[in-house]
């Protein structure tokens, strides 16, 4: 399970040190407030080792099945490359694809690849390798238990290697979002030899060969991953303003489940980065001289996809009661910091094509109560509304990928109870959550969403069931207007026409209360040691240490 075992002593020693620290800090608090600072300054230097403390490392390393994870994605971002780079404003720039063209209908694209790129096993990252990856992203391999990449265009038809450095990609209809999607964190380039392995061998991280600036030196299931820099790496995206090998020699990702222990370990100098510190402690950390970062990602806001297949949420009046019954200002003020912004739509405001429809989901408890009254839900003696002997209930499942989800759900539960909802909160760990909480489950009326995207046009593949879409709201084909808009967006060949349809789509989804926005999302938080400098954050808010260095 490990390419080299000698390095395992470092994580073992680190675990012992952290265990000692945990006993010492259980009763320690670190301050309150909110802030965001960089990781410091100084001249870049080579060398040094970085230790990154993380909540979890998930339950599989099959690339297609783990690349979009908020946890495993950190590792994939260092051992693999992508065809294009996308920054936090959605701007696309060359990477392994150094240029590209498309036809007027946006049904055919030609990618021209950077020469001389190799996977860490020495095999070329050429056109044949790119075709193998495109096919795997689009189709997966169900017979081997390998999923397609979520949000990859459903209109993908085929790709062919024109020559060693040129790939032609064809779609069944216009697909304007194809190029940006190549920078999505699921679109990682893996050696064809690795892609051909059985799923159980792909689940061995040491067998998943990438072309990135780091290689896997060792790993242990949901415990640690050690990466070692690749000395011959020399094809980073120009947007990062650094070429050649990485500066830091090694990166150790160590699982530490306790949020406070992760943060206190960085404060004590026993680790360099703590993932997902408590938001309210960021200002205190910054005042002590630590680097804190709360980068926004491109994607959907934090909110609920409502399952219209579960009564009473098949009734738009009940859905609108949820929409109008949540005090988002109180939520932001109580649980979060100024890094979290009010939602304006179901897209983050930095996503190209997002428009402001916040007027469709104001906090208006009187209006929420009127919707429930009209729908026949009457307050009972205990304050819970009933209709025909049924209690008005909703189950919330805090998202374990978000450190603040439980606290947010508890506050929202208080607000909804005042309206007459009976609220049940069920909390699971990462693995159990993945098994029990999913779109369309009969016991999941409201699915908490934190999906990153690179291009807004990809919504056509998730909001309905067209072309095997994910059908987030369980509407199937029952809403002709939703189907019309989603299909029009998917088939648009003109960006301006697509943006107009996107605006209509956002208004329709919010008016029908299929989606209940909570706030703009800061999914990934970082507490950095003062000795960490020069890290970068991409369009989906992953920290990249290729550019970073260790200083005094």
TrEMBL record:
<dbReference type="InterPro" id="IPR030678">
    <property type="entry name" value="Peptide/Ni-bd"/>
</dbReference>
<keyword id="KW-0732">Signal</keyword>
<dbReference type="Pfam" id="PF00496">
    <property type="entry name" value="SBP_bac_5"/>
</dbReference>
<dbReference type="InterPro" id="IPR039424">
    <property type="entry name" value="SBP_5"/>
</dbReference>
<protein>
    <submittedName>
        <fullName>ABC transporter substrate-binding protein</fullName>
    </submittedName>
</protein>
<dbReference type="InterPro" id="IPR000914">
    <property type="entry name" value="SBP_5_dom"/>
</dbReference>
<feature type="domain" description="Solute-binding protein family 5">
    <location>
        <begin position="92"/>
        <end position="448"/>
    </location>
</feature>
<feature type="signal peptide">
    <location>
        <begin position="1"/>
        <end position="34"/>
    </location>
</feature>
